[in-house]
Design goal:
By secondary structure, the chain is of the alpha/beta class. The protein has four domains: about 15-255, Orthogonal Bundle (Arp2/3 complex 21 kDa subunit ARPC3); about 270-385, GAF domain (Beta-Lactamase); about 395-555, Alpha-Beta Plaits; about 575-825, EAL domain (TIM Barrel, Alpha-Beta Barrel), CATH 3.20.20. It has 29 helices and 23 strands. The chain has an eight-stranded mixed β-barrel with strand order 15-16-18-19-20-21-22-23, surrounded by five helices. Helix 5 (about 120-140) packs antiparallel against helix 6 (about 160-190), helix 8 (about 200-225) packs antiparallel against helix 9 (about 230-265) and helix 11 runs antiparallel to helix 26 (about 755-765). The longest helix has about 40 residues, at about 5-45. It is elongated, with a radius of gyration of 43 Å. The chain starts with a helix and ends in a 7-residue tail after the last helix.
């Protein structure tokens, strides 16, 4: 069934064909009249000499016709030839009637000697040559040029000859353009202005050369008739000059268009890539239509068709209308190595076309560039899909589908940054009482069902802008937004916990759920971290006192006082070297070999015992001791790396740095001094960054990170996947490693591996990054991570954090008599490993263990 578009296009083709025949018919009529006049005039005084002259000049025109330069526009070839020089010579020597007849004979002979031509083309070319020759002869006669063979004693008058030839050349050129260009414009559907400007300089050069050649020929003939025999070589020289100039111009323009097209194809949107390919290919190869068919393994086939101006179809191949142009030049969309066939590019023409060698090479180059662009666009689309998957997984609790801790922190930060407009904000932390008894008595499956039911009840008890989150285990949080006053928070907390009063029906049993909650309103300083801490303090007060809800009271909070006293102890701690560094090894999951170690800092406080960084790092950053603290940690870490290397275990050391250190332009120089002093190569130091902290400061830290990377220091992105901006950070920070947060590793399930873990490993492999899994606790986790393609891990399965000398002793001791290893290999060396089906399909080959 013909579509409306096809019918309209067919009507346009019919109109164009009628106009072409009308124009050709008009030319034939005028040419026939001119031919009749020439025959009538010639017969009145025709002689044997005239016959010889006519034959000689006809041969000259026929030879000039054969020396042509073809320019293809679509399936139509526009011909440039030095025939104008031959016509001007005829005008100078012979009577106008003889000129017309010789043009007829020469053009007819030249076109008949060529392979079979369409009738319309033959009639047009013969008629055009007769009319342009008649116009040239008429202009010469009008200005008083007397043909040389008709002049008394064949006298040569320079002034009249030059003036006559100039008028003749002008008339010939104007008539040739006026007759040819409208017809070519109709035949090729090309704007006439574009045709007039196409190779204009080459055409003008050819016409000027023809005028000079004709004048020189007359001059040579007047000296000695035999000198006129140089006409044919001269005509050929003009042809070569014009041809070379046109070909050179065509090649330059073709490469420029190809370069521009390649730049435009460098896009990440597949729709834009395909539309650009269609329009650009139509222009580069002068095709009437271009069609791109893309076939991908994960999606349906797709066809995009159009011309240099627009895309006329975009959809499945089965629904594509019949193409307008029948002759097709196809080429496969494959890479330069020919190993990725993604579809086919088709150039369509209204008539038969044979591409030259340069055009064929350009087409192959264009197809390869398009193949690369399609693959890049598909990779970008997959990366975006993966980013959305990461964002969902990182922001959602997999069991209850509630928000998780990271999402709570993100949303809370947004709310607190706009408190005046959104009213008072408050946070309720909820902990289920005696939930462990449910798990121990009824099993974890029953416990999960209880948690899911609790989550639904909490979500149904809040307002639209509030957020309910599961923080882990049996701990939940509710962020209240838009409260009219702080006192309302406690009342809302009682309402939410009241939703848990009705017992839960579980396998014909009614289970009563009790919970304790602590509520706190947003503080003026400290942000979500401080709000969480205050709600946590209130919740533990509620559990300790056996109350349902307790509101935060500053008078009962001793944490702030402790933080202040820590700040006062920092100067002495740095001076007395109370900060010590332990090291947890990072292990090759397949071989068990230690490949790096992470530095973990502890503060051996004389009164409070060992403190972890989350207890004192904020105080360090506020105290002005950050530089001294960072130097102390780096010194110990690099000293350990040097000691291990001297003992025959050259393994890198990874150090976590504070975001504030990255704001110091002198930080890279301080690291360089310590590396030089210890004679440690820069690649043996890994700086670990936390994306959730540094993202807001990326504009500031870019220069510091770039300097570190240029030095050769490796960068690692810690806790990857836990923040909604993981991929955004990865795009900005030139990291070498990704570290999977221990929370995702702990949730690994043999039947359904975490989507975040799987996608992070695949992303790391595609970007050629080392992926390290944190918190590996069991052999099942180790095996599953290895099967997913994760190369390295750290955790208590291999070793806890320990001082540098103890780690060195463990490396010497090794595992199973293999120094440098901390775990037995998953497979003995030389064993052929049968990979699980899911990994085998990703890797595309069978690996050998070792």
């Amino acid at each position: 069934m013909e579509s409306e578009h096809d019918g309209t296009r067919r009507d346009q083709d019919d109109v164009t064909n009628r106009r072409l025949w009308r124009l050709v018919g008009l030319i034939v009529v005028f040419a026939s009249a001119t031919f009749a006049w020439a025959v009538y005039r010639a017969t009145s005084h025709f002689s044997t000499d005239d016959l010889i002259v006519a034959l000689v000049l006809s041969a000259l025109i026929a030879i000039a016709q054969r020396l042509r330069v073809d320019i293809r526009v679509g399936s139509t070839r526009i011909t440039l030839s030095p025939v104008s020089a031959a016509v001007l010579i005829c005008v100078a020597f012979a009577d106008p009637s003889i000129v017309v007849l010789t043009a007829f004979l020469g053009a007819t002979a030249a076109w008949l000697l060529r392979r079979r031509q369409p009738t319309v083309k033959l009639l047009f070319n013969i008629g055009k040559e007769m009319l342009t020759a008649a116009g040239a002869a008429g202009a010469a006669a009008f200005v008083g040029l007397q043909p040389l063979l008709d002049a008394p004693n064949h006298e040569f008058h320079i002034r009249s000859t030059v003036l006559g030839l100039l008028a003749s050349a002008l008339a010939y050129g104007l008539l040739d353009e006026a007759i040819s260009q409208p017809l070519f414009s109709l035949a090729t559907r090309t704007p006439i202005r574009r045709l007039l400007l196409m190779h204009l300089d080459a055409r003008l050069l050819g016409r000027a050369g023809a005028l000079v050649l004709a004048t020189a020929t007359i001059g040579l003939y007047s000296v000695n008739p035999w000198l006129a025999t140089v006409v044919i070589p001269s005509v050929y020289a003009i042809y070569l000059t014009s041809a070379n100039r046109v070909r050179h111009r065509e090649e330059n323009e073709a490469w420029q268009r190809l370069a521009q097209a390649t730049d435009e194809l460098n896009a990440v949107d597949l729709n834009k890539v395909l539309a650009t390919a269609v329009r650009r290919a139509a222009g580069i190869f002068s095709a009437n239509e271009v069609e791109v068919e893309v076939r991908t393994p994960d999606g349906p086939a797709r066809v995009v068709r159009g011309n240099s101006e627009m895309v006329s179809y975009d959809g499945p191949p089965a629904g594509a209308p019949a193409p307008r142009s029948s002759f097709v030049v196809p080429i496969a969309l494959e890479s330069y190595q020919g190993d990725a066939d993604l579809g086919e590019l088709r150039l369509r023409f209204d008539g038969e076309v044979k591409l030259r060698e340069r055009e064929r090479y350009t087409l192959r180059t264009f197809a390869a560039a398009l193949c690369t662009a399609v693959r890049n666009a598909e990779t970008f689309a997959e990366t975006e899909r993966l980013a959305e998957s990461h964002a969902r997984a990182a922001a959602q609790d997999p069991l209850t589908q509630l928000a998780n801790r990271r999402r709570l922190l993100q949303y809370g930060t947004e709310v607190l940054s706009n408190v005046p407009a959104r009213g008072v904000a408050a946070l309720l932390l909820i902990d289920l009482n005696h939930f462990k008894e449910v798990n121990d008595t009824l099993g974890h499956a029953a416990g999960d069902r209880v948690l899911i039911d609790v989550a639904k009840r909490l979500a149904g008890a809040v307002q639209e802008d509030d957020l309910v989150a599961r923080l882990g285990g049996d701990e939940f949080a509710v962020l209240f937004v838009g409260l009219s006053a702080p006192a309302v928070a406690e009342a809302r907390a009682h309402t939410v916990l009241g939703a848990l009063a009705v017992p839960i029906d579980l396998d014909n049993m009614r289970i009563s759920v009790e919970a304790s909650g602590g509520v706190a309103t947003a503080p003026s300083t400290g942000g979500m971290g401080e709000l969480l801490r205050r709600a946590d303090v209130a919740m533990y007060q509620a559990k300790r006192d056996g109350q349902r809800v307790v509101a935060y009271s500053h008078a009962r909070d001793t944490a702030d006082v402790g933080s202040l006293t820590l700040g006062g102890d920092l100067a002495r701690a740095v001076a007395e070297q109370q900060f010590t560094v332990n090291f947890q090894p990072i292990v090759d999951l397949g071989t068990g070999e230690a490949i790096a170690a992470e530095a973990l800092t502890r503060w051996h406080h004389p009164d409070r015992g060992d403190l972890t960084p989350d207890r004192f790092l904020d105080a360090v950053e506020r105290s002005g001791q950050l530089g001294a603290f960072a130097d102390a940690v780096l010194d110990q870490a690099l000293a350990a790396a040097y000691e291990w290397g001297q003992a025959g275990f050259p393994i890198p050391v990874a150090v976590n740095v504070s975001p504030r250190s990255l704001l110091d332009p002198g930080f890279p120089e301080a690291i360089q001094r310590r590396l030089t002093a210890r004679r440690i190569p820069p690649e043996f130091l890994v700086i670990e960054l936390t994306e959730s902290v540094t993202l807001s400061q990326l504009e500031v830290v870019d220069e510091v990170l770039g300097t570190l990377r240029a030095m050769g220091v490796r960068l690692a992105l810690d806790d990857f996947g836990t923040g909604y901006s993981s991929l955004a950070t990865l795009a900005r920070v030139p990291v070498d490693e990704l570290k999977i947060d221990r929370g995702f590793v702990s949730e690994l399930d043999l039947s359904a591996p975490s989507a975040v873990v799987r996608s992070t490993i695949e992303l790391g492999r595609s970007l050629n990054l080392v992926v390290v899994a944190e918190g590996v606790e069991t052999e099942d986790q180790r095996m599953q991570l290895w099967e997913l393609g994760c190369p390295a891990g750290q955790g208590h399965l291999f070793a806890r954090a320990m001082p540098a000398h103890r780690l060195l002793a463990a490396l010497h001791r090794g595992c199973g008599g293999r120094p440098g290893t901390l775990a037995p290999p998953l497979h003995e060396q030389g064993t052929v490993v049968r990979m699980p089906l899911n990994r085998r399909s990703r890797l595309g080959q069978t690996h050998t263990g070792g």
